[in-house]
């Protein structure tokens, strides 16, 4: 049986002492505030470092975000930025792998991808996907494998799939220390 992700949570350790998953998420031009709220909640559950909201993506305080985030907008570190391209360049310069989550022809399967932590995941608009100018900045394009005919997932659902697969991969890496949960 696999160990729990953060042993410290079993002992009631203070939230602030728990390690964070070295992952950031950029939501660029995500139109639904309910999807934004779902990312806050899922990002908090996965323990990501930061959520960036760019373009016309909604941001707190907003009733729709609060409704789906259930308080996670107060516990997950987040930032509002006007443009995602300079943010991606900044994170790349600081050593982050930039991964666009998209169904592009050059995308690798999520389960075959070997991320280099820290990783920044970029999710785009629910209809149009990731802006091509932003997609060009990425180190890798990653797709969630799908067997259905639609080949489409809600952006927040895709985010949950990708974040928890990254949590699994991080825990399996040599970087993760199961004794401390970091």
Descriptive notes:
The protein has 182 residues and is an alpha/beta fold. It has one domain: 3-Layer(aba) Sandwich (Alpha/beta knot). Helix content is 29%, strand content 19%. The protein contains five helices and seven strands. The protein has helices at 33-46, 63-69, 84-93, 132-135, 155-172; strands spanning 21-28, 48-54, 78-81, 97-101, 108-109, 119-123, 140-143. A seven-stranded parallel β-sheet has the order 3-2-1-6-4-7-5. The longest helix is centred in the C-terminal third of the chain and has 18 residues, at 155-172. The chain starts with 20 loop residues before the first strand and ends in a 10-residue tail after the last helix.
The CATH topology name reads Alpha/beta knot
The CATH top-level class label: Alpha Beta
**Which spans have pLDDT < 50 for at least 5 consecutive residues?**
none
Q: In CATH terms, what is the architecture? A: 3-Layer(aba) Sandwich
Strand composition percent: 15-25%
How widely separated are the two ends? 20 Å
Largest sheet: 7 strands, parallel
The total of helices stands at 5
Structure in a nutshell:
The chain has 182 residues and is an alpha/beta fold. The chain is built from five helices and seven strands, in the order βαβαβαβββαβα.
């Amino acid at each position: 049986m696999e160990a729990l992700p953060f042993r410290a949570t079993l002992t009631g350790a203070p939230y602030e002492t728990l390690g964070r998953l070295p992952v950031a998420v950029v939501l660029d031009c995500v139109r639904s505030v309910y999807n934004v709220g779902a990312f806050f909640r899922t990002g908090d559950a996965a323990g990501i470092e930061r959520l960036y909201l760019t373009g016309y993506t909604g941001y707190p305080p907003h009733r729709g975000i609060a409704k789906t985030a259930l308080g996670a907008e107060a516990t997950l570190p987040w930032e509002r930025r006007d443009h995602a391209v300079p943010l991606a360049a900044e994170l790349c310069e600081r050593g982050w792998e930039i991964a666009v989550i998209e169904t592009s022809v050059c995308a690798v399967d999520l389960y075959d991808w070997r991320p280099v932590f820290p990783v920044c995941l970029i999710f785009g608009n629910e209809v149009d996907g990731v802006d091509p100018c932003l997609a060009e900045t990425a180190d890798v394009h990653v797709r969630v494998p799908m067997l259905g005919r639609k080949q489409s997932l809600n952006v927040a659902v895709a985010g949950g799939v990708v974040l928890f697969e990254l949590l699994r991969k991080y825990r399996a890496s040599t970087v993760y220390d199961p004794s401390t949960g970091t």
